[in-house]
Design a protein that fits this description.
With 169 residues, the chain is an alpha/beta fold. The protein is built from five helices and seven strands; from the N terminus they run βββαβαβααββα. Strand 1 (6-16) and strand 2 (24-29) form a beta hairpin. The protein binds iron/sulfur cluster (SF4).
């Protein structure tokens, strides 16, 4: 890789078991336009907060722990940094690992063509947890999501069929 792809991040944690199936590295991006009431990560909303890091350094960090089965992109809103995250996700896939992504946008919004590089990023993702967090639909018993409206989506099947296909755990 010659170009450095920079990202604005809120934090990164390794060995997470709550942000998708298996042991994962979770990348929390900085900046979110949705402002869902009751959001668990309000510190990630400000687009000028957080710190800068590069895709290249994140891949290096991910490789240091081979027990991790994939990377989860969370936030913040990952699709506000879809171009650089596409590079990260493609590198993760090239290592034979999987990619989960959380977004306040729905699958339908992401494939509508209005969000730059959204389809590019989706093309490297296995599972999308989609939709804004809705306090009135909050359910603490749901695996890997916070409210009933959010869906676990099998991204590749959904892109192929051009409609959301649910992912089964
Ligand atoms: S989309 Fe996620 S990070 Fe953004 S406000 Fe909603 S719950 Fe918070």
């Amino acid at each position: 890789m010659e170009t450095k792809h920079s990202l604005r991040l809120s934090g990164v944690i390794g060995d997470s078991i709550v942000d998708g199936k298996g042991i994962r590295m979770t990348v929390f991006v900085q900046g979110c336009p949705h402002h869902c009431p009751g959001c668990h990560n309000p510190q990630t909303h400000d687009f000028s907060g957080g710190y800068e890091d590069t895709v290249e350094r994140l891949i290096q960090k991910f490789k240091e722990d081979p027990l991790q089965c994939g990377v989860t992109l969370s936030g913040g809103e990952p699709f506000c940094q879809a171009e650089a995250l596409s590079v990260l996700a493609s590198e993760v896939k090239a290592l034979g690992k999987n990619v989960w992504v959380y977004s306040g946008y729905t699958f339908e919004e992401l494939v509508s063509g209005t969000i730059l590089f959204a389809r590019e990023l989706l093309s490297y993702c296995d599972v999308l947890v989609d939709g804004r967090f809705l306090m009135e639909q909050r359910n603490l018993t749901l695996p890997f999501r916070g409210s009933e409206n959010q869906r676990l989506i099998d991204v590749q099947a959904s892109l192929e069929q051009n409609k959301p296909v649910l992912y089964t755990l």
